[in-house]
Design brief:
The structure is a homotetramer. The first copy, chain A, is of the alpha/beta class. Chain A folds into two domains: 212 residues, Quinone Oxidoreductase, Chain A, domain 1 (Alpha-Beta Complex), CATH 3.90.180.10; 159 residues, Rossmann fold (3-Layer(aba) Sandwich). Helix content of chain A is 25%, strand content 22%. In chain A, the strands form three sheets. In chain A, strands 3, 4, 5, 6, 7, 15 and 16 form a seven-stranded mixed sheet that branches. A six-stranded parallel sheet of chain A has the order 10-9-8-11-12-14, with helices on both faces. A two-stranded antiparallel sheet of chain A has the order 1-2. The interface between B and C is medium-sized, with 21 and 21 residues. Chains A, B, C, D: GO terms for molecular function: oxidoreductase activity; zinc ion binding. Chains A, B, C, D: Belongs to the zinc-containing alcohol dehydrogenase family. Chains A, B, C, D: It comes from Pseudonocardia bannensis.
Chain lengths: 383, 383, 383, 383
C-alpha cells in the first residue's frame, strides 16, 4: 500500500510499504479515508525529535473497518470508525480509570502512553497510508454514525485535536461563565477555543500573531489577541479588569517564542502565569519533551525551563500537563458533531490526495498563510 | 500588652505594644492562649523576606474571645476559637467559593490573600502576643468544643499546619489505597503525613535527613526515607515496583537543597517529578516567592526555577500550588481531634512562655535536634 | 410603601405597608425595579401551602441599593443588585461551603433554608413591593453591571429561576454531549432547557402539554415533547435509540399530573425513572413538601409518594433534590448575560405595574395561554 | 465438578455439573479457592426472586487461573485473582467510563448490568463450585499479590461486599471528619462501616438489632445503635446535636422492616431521610427490585415504596442507588489489605467445605446467632 514515509528532516515521501495484517485476535484493519497532518508531526518532520527513517506518520485517522480478529466482537467490518491517537490496551491500571493517554502496556516497559506513528510512543505504524492496523479494536475504535461518510472533515478531528483542545480546557477547569485565555492559535489552540465556546465561557481570548488563525478564532466568537500588536499579558488584563483570565490553555509547546521572537520554552508558560488570575488554573497540551538536543540553551536541552514558580505559587495557581485521553471525550464530541452543535472542520484549509503529502507538510510547516489544517485523502486522485 | 516584635534578621524581642481594639463592627478581640512558631516565620526571621521591623509575628493562634463588635452575631465572648491564618472577608468572589486563601479584600488591591503577621500578606498584626484582633470574626473564627481548653496543643494546629498538610494531600489528589511521597519532614510535612494516613493511603513516604523528624513520621505509620542514605528518588522507586508514588507533596519550599547540600529552589520540585508516577499529581504547599534577592543564583533571585517541565509533561502530571484555604478543612479536622481520631500535637517538642520566644526562634531556626515544634503560651509564667 | 399582600386563597391586593428599615448593621435597603411572579408563589396563592395573611410575596427581585448598615463595606448606595431568593448568613457551616440554600441561621432553629416572602422559609418580607430589606447584604447581594438598568428582564432571572433551572442540570450531572429530558415547560423548566443548551447538551427534550411553552423551548433549540400526543416516556425513548436520556430534570413538583390528568405527586418522578437510562441522574427542583393537607390521597397528604424505587435502584440511578443555592451560579450567569451569551428574558410575556399584580397572579395561575412569565415593575405607572 | 445448585426455595444441593470451558478467546478458567454466601443470594434462596432451578450460585469468588483463551495477554495461568461480581465487557459506553456495574453487553439487550449466578443478571454460572469461567478476563480479573494464598478470607471480600460497602459511602459523599449512619449491620453494612472508618469519618453509627452484628461494628470503632432499644432516628439525633448525620447508607434493601417488625420496603429509606441532616446524602446499596410478587402489599409488589419525598426534598438531600462498580475500588482496597491497613475478614464466622453449603445457607438465612459470614472452601475436605 501507499504510505507517507519519513526519510529524514523535511523529507517525507509517499512510497509502497507492506499492508498491515491482523497480528493479534483483538486487532482490526481499517481503510483510511481521511488522515490529518498534525502540528506535532512537524516536530518529527523538522528532525527536532527522533523519528526513525522508514517509519510512517499519521495519528489523526478515520476510516472503514475491513477486517477484524476473532476476539473482536463489537466493531464490525463496514463500520466507519475514529481511531484515537492514543493506542491503549483497555485493561491496565491506567486504562481502566480512563487514563488511556498513559496506557502501561502499549509502549516499552516503564514508559506509559503510546500513539500511532510517533517518536518515543511505541512501535505503532501511522495512518497516513491506505490502511492502518488498530490494536485492541473493541476498546480503541469509536464507531461513527452514517453521516461520517459525508462529514469526514468534522469527524476526523475526533482522533486528536478536538479532544486535545477540549482536554486543555478540562485541565484548566473551565466552568461556564468564566473567562479563558488560550496561547497558540494553531489547530489545537483553535479547538481549545471551540471547546471553551461550547462550554459557555463568557470570554475566550486566543493569542497568536498570524492573521489567518486570529480570523478563524473570531469566526467562532472568540476574541483575537494579536501579540504582534503588543504584550499579550497586558492585552488580556486590559479586558479583564486588570485581574487576568479565570483560566488558561497552553497550546504551543516547547518551541514557544518570546515577544522578541526568540525561542524560549518558558515563554508561554510564564505568560500564562501572568495572564491568569490568582487561583487560576492552566492546562498545558502543547508538547514539552524530556530532552531536546536542538534547543537554543542548556536548560532547554535538558528539557527544563526557567519557570516562574514564584508567581505561580504566590498566585495559588494549578497546572495540568500532558497528552489527551481521547476516549474520555470522543463519544460526547461525536454527538455534538452529529447533532449539528459544532463544525470543527471550519479550520480545514486544504484537502490533498495522499500522494501530495510532501506538499502539505512543506507548506504547513512553513506556516504559509492560509495553510491552517491539511487533511490527506488516500482515496482521492492526485490532481 | 506583650508581643513578639521583629527587629531585624534573627532579632525578635518580647515587648510592650498597644492592645488591639475593635476597629470595625465585624471584629472580635481574642486573648491568645497558644500560638505556634511556624517554619514560614523563619523566612522572615532570617531576613530572607521583607518583614517590617516593629511588626508582630504569629499566624497560628488559638484563644478565647473577650470582646466582639456590634455586627458579630455568631461568635460570643467566652468562646474558645481557632483563627485560621488566612484573613478573609467572606463575601468577595474568592471567599464565596471557599478560596479564603486568596481573599480579594484583605490585602492591597490587586493582591489576593492575607495573613496575620506576615510579609506581603496585608497589614494584620500577628498573634504571638497576649491579644489578637480577628476581623470578620463570624466568618473567620472557628468555635471550638470545651475540650479545647485542655487539649490546646492539638487544636492550635488547626489554624495552619494541620490544614496546610491536609491541603497538600488534597492538591495531590490522594485517594484511599494510593501511595504518597512527601518531601520535607518538618511540621507541615509531618502534618501531610498524618493527613495521608487519615485518608488511608496504602503507603506514605516522608523524605528528610533529620532523624528526629523521620522518627516522628514513623510513629504515625509513615515510611521514613532518609536522604542522607542516598538518592530519595531511587529509594521511593525501589519501594513502588519502579513506578513511583501515585502522588506527592512538596513541603519544603524555595530554600530546598539538592543532594549535595546546595540551595536549589528546583530540587524538591524536580525530585517529585521523578518520584511520582506517570499521571501522578503533586501538591506544593512549601512556600515559593516572586522575588528572592538573597537567593544563590540569578534565576532564583527572580523567583524562577529550572523546572523539569519536559518530564513533568511527558509523564502527564499535574501540580497545584499555594497557600491553604484553612476554612475548607478546619471544621472537619476539629471533629477528628474532638472524637479522638488523631492527635496532631504529637510533633510538639517545646511549650514556652511568650517571654522565651527568642529562645524558641533561635533553636527552631537552627534545627537543633529535638526542636520539632514550639508552642508559645502567653499565660504561662517564664521559668 | 406599596406591596403585594396575601389575604387568603386567590386573593392578593396591592396595599400600603410600612417601609423596611435597617435593622442590623449588615442590612441594606433596596428599591425594587423588577420583581417576578414565580410558579412557587402560586402554591401559596392557591392556599395549598400555609402563607400567613398579611405577608408580602416576592422572592425574584432586582433593584437599586438606597441605604446600607454600618457594617456593610462592599455594597454601596446606588449599586444595582440581584438578591438571591435564598436568605443566607454567610458564616454558618452550610453557607461557608456554598450551601446557601440551607442556611442554618436564617430560619427557625432546626430548619435550614430561608427565602423572602415564602411559607415556612423564615420571617422575611417579600420584594413585590417598592422596597426590600436585604439582610447580610455584602454576602447576599450580587452587584450588577451598568447594563442591568436597561436589561432588567434578563438580570431579574438571576435571583431564582435561571439559577434554579441551572441547578436542576447540575444535580442531574449533565455533561456536554449528553442528552437531557426535562419534565415541565414552565419558567423553571425552560430555564433548565436554556441551561442544558448553554452546557452543550447534544439533545434537550422538554415535556409539557402547553403549546406556548413548547414553542418557547423550541426557540432555543430544545426538542419539544408534547405529552398530549402520547406517553412522553415512549417519545423520549424513540428519540434515544430506546435507551432513554442520559439525565433528567424534574421541574414540576408535587402538583404533578399523570397522563390521564389526575394529580399524582409521583407522576413525573416515576416518568423520569423510566425516561432516563441505566446509570442516569435526575435533578429535582420542582417543589415537594412534607405535609400537603390539600392532596388528593393519604400518601400525598403525608408528603409521601408511590416512588418507583425498584426500577430506580435496578437502573443504578441517582437523584438530587431541593432548592437552588443561587450564589453558586449567579455570578457566572451574570457574566453570560452581560457578554450576550444568553437572553433569559425570552420567556417574559408580560410586564405589569405593581398595581396590576392581582391580574398577573390570576392569569399566570390559570395558565392562560401566552402568560408564560410576569414581571412586576414597581416604578411603572398603571395603565 | 461439584457446584452449589439451586433446586427451589430453600433447597440447594452440591452436585456434579459440567466443567466450564474456554468459550471465547477472552475467557479464563479459575479454580475457586474461596467463595462466599452473600446476603443477596438469600433473596434467591428464599424464592423471593426468580432463580432458575439447576443454576449455580456464587458471585463472591477468589481463585487461581488454570487456563486462558488466546486473546488473554495480561492474566496468566497460576495467577491468584479476584473476580468482581459484575461481569463486564470493558468496551461498551458504560464500562469505558468505569460503570462496570451497568455493562451494556453482558446481559440481555436493553438490560445493563450482569453478575455471576444471579437472577435477572445474565446467563453467567456462579462460582460456588470448583471452577468458574471468567469472561473478558483481562478486564474482569484483578490479580492478587502472593499473600492472597494465605489471607484468602480478606481478599475474598474484594469481589463484592467490601467494595459494595465502600460504594455506599461513596454515593453518600462521605468526607473525612463527617458523621455517617448506616442502616443494616449485615456483612455489607459492616463493610460500609469499615469503609467509613478507613475514610476517617468522625462518627460511624451502625443501626441493627442483632447483638452479634452490633458487636462486630463496635470492634472497628463504630458506634452501635440498637434499634431494639428504641427509635434509631432519635438515637442518631441524640448523638448529633439534634441535627442528624452528615450522610447515610442503606444496607438492608427491599425486605426492610419497620420498628414494629413488619416488612416495609420504605422503612429504612424513610428512616434515613429523617436520620440525615439537611443537605445530607444517602447511598443505597441494599437491593430494591422492579417487581416483587411476594411482597406484603400492592405498592411493594410493583416495586414501589411510600417514599418520604416531601422531607427528602425539603431537606435538600440527594440519593444514589444501585449495584457497586467493583473495579472502581478493588485495586485500591487490595492495596489496603496487602499493606495491613485493614482486615475485612473480621466478620467471617464460618469456613465450610463446599459440600456443607446447604448448612451454610440454612443458618445464614435464619440469621442464627454468630452466623455473620460464611466462606465456602471448595478444596477443603468435609468434616
Amino acid at each position: 500500500m501507499k504510505a507517507v514515509v519519513y526519510h529524514g528532516p523535511r523529507d517525507v515521501r509517499v512510497e509502497d510499504v507492506p499492508d498491515p495484517k491482523i497480528e493479534k485476535p483483538t486487532d482490526a484493519i481499517v481503510r483510511i479515508t481521511s488522515t490529518n497532518i498534525c502540528g506535532s508531526d512537524l516536530h518529527m518532520y523538522e528532525g527536532r525529535t527522533d523519528f526513525e527513517p522508514g517509519r510512517v506518520f499519521g495519528h489523526e485517522n478515520v476510516g472503514e473497518v475491513v477486517e477484524v480478529g476473532n476476539a473482536v466482537e463489537k466493531v464490525k467490518v463496514g463500520d466507519m470508525i475514529s481511531a484515537p491517537f492514543n493506542v491503549s490496551c483497555g485493561h491496565c491500571s491506567n486504562c481502566e480509570r480512563g487514563l488511556t493517554n498513559y496506557c502501561e502496556r502499549a509502549n516499552s516497559p516503564g514508559i506509559a502512553g503510546a500513539a500511532y506513528g510517533f517518536a518515543d510512543m511505541g512501535p505503532w505504524q501511522g495512518g497516513q497510508a491506505e490502511y492502518l492496523r488498530v490494536p485492541w479494536a473493541d476498546f480503541d475504535a469509536l464507531r461513527l454514525p452514517e453521516d461520517a461518510r459525508e462529514r469526514q472533515n468534522d469527524y476526523v478531528m475526533l482522533s486528536d485535536i478536538f479532544p486535545t483542545g477540549w482536554h486543555a480546557t478540562e485541565m484548566a477547569g473551565l466552568s461556564p461563565g468564566e473567562t479563558c485565555v488560550i496561547y497558540g492559535g494553531g489547530p489545537v489552540g483553535l479547538m481549545a477555543a471551540l471547546s471553551a465556546t461550547l462550554k459557555s465561557a463568557s470570554q475566550v481570548f486566543v493569542v497568536d500573531r498570524h492573521p489567518d488563525r486570529l480570523k478563524l478564532a473570531e469566526e467562532i466568537g472568540a476574541i483575537p489577541i494579536d501579540r504582534s500588536q503588543g504584550d499579550p499579558v497586558q492585552q488580556v488584563k486590559d479586558r479583564t479588569n486588570g485581574i487576568g483570565a479565570d483560566c488558561g490553555c497552553e497550546c504551543v509547546g516547547y518551541q514557544a517564542h518570546d515577544q522578541e521572537g526568540n525561542e524560549d520554552n518558558s515563554a508561554t508558560l510564564n505568560a500564562l502565569v501572568q495572564s491568569v488570575k490568582f487561583t487560576g488554573r492552566i492546562g498545558t497540551v502543547g508538547v514539552f519533551i524530556p530532552q531536546d538536543p536542538g534547543a537554543p540553551n542548556d536548560l532547554a536541552k535538558q528539557g527544563k525551563a526557567a519557570f516562574d514558580v514564584g508567581w505561580h505559587w504566590f498566585k495559588g495557581q494549578s497546572m495540568g500537563h500532558g497528552q489527551c485521553p481521547v476516549k474520555r471525550y470522543n463519544r460526547y464530541l461525536r454527538s455534538l458533531i452529529h447533532e449539528g452543535k459544532c463544525k470543527p472542520s471550519w479550520i480545514v484549509s486544504h484537502e490533498l490526495p495522499l500522494e501530495q503529502a510532501a506538499e502539505g507538510y512543506k507548506n504547513f510547516d512553513a506556516r504559509e498563510r492560509g495553510w491552517t489544517k491539511v487533511v490527506l485523502k488516500p482515496q482521492m486522485k492526485a490532481a
